Amino acid sequence: MSTSAFEPATRRRVLGCVLSAAGCAAASAVYQAFGYGVASPAMTWAFLVPLLGGAAHLWVWALARGRSVPPALARPWQNLLFAGLATAAAGLYYRGIVDIAGVDGGWERWFLAGGGALALAGTLGLWRIKPEGSC
């Protein structure tokens, strides 16, 4: 199925997720280049959060639902999903900064728990929207 079957708003959001993943990868590379040879797996793989959690998730959702869901119904749930993904990515970056600095953190579990809860709520809400014409 081509991307023309997707709503323009969904295509823009998927593109935004891909660009966010590229930005995360670039920021990780720059930050770790100045880390004096110290790398953090959490920061290295943080780009997967917007790529898999955002772009791939919306792509699968759009294939399953297509044009049958009005964008106005999906937008609040997508916003909640993206807020959760951003919070989880921030937690991974925090863990990476703490790893590279060589100190103990502890806040990343709160970032990841809060981000996971928001992303789960957005995902459940998004997939529970009934397509137009269904009961």
Describe this structure in words.
It is a single chain. With 135 residues, the protein is mainly α. The protein has one domain. The chain contains 5 helices and no strands. The longest helix is centred in the middle third of the chain and has 31 residues. The radius of gyration is 17 Å and the shape is elongated.
Task: Produce a short descriptive summary.
The protein is mainly alpha-helical and 135 residues long. Helix content is 73%, strand content 0%.
Mean pLDDT across all amino acids: 86
Helix count from the secondary structure assignment = 5
Shape: elongated
Radius of gyration: 17 Å
Number of E-type strands? 0
Which structural category fits the helices and strands? mainly alpha
- Major sheet details: none
Unreliable stretches (pLDDT < 50, length at least 5) are none
Domains, number: 1
Q: Hey, roughly how much beta strand do the residues contain?
A: under 5%
Q: Could you tell me how far the N terminus lies from the C terminus, measured between alpha carbons in angstroms?
A: 26 Å
Succession of helices and strands: HHHHH
State the share of residues found in helices, binned by percent. Answer: over 70%
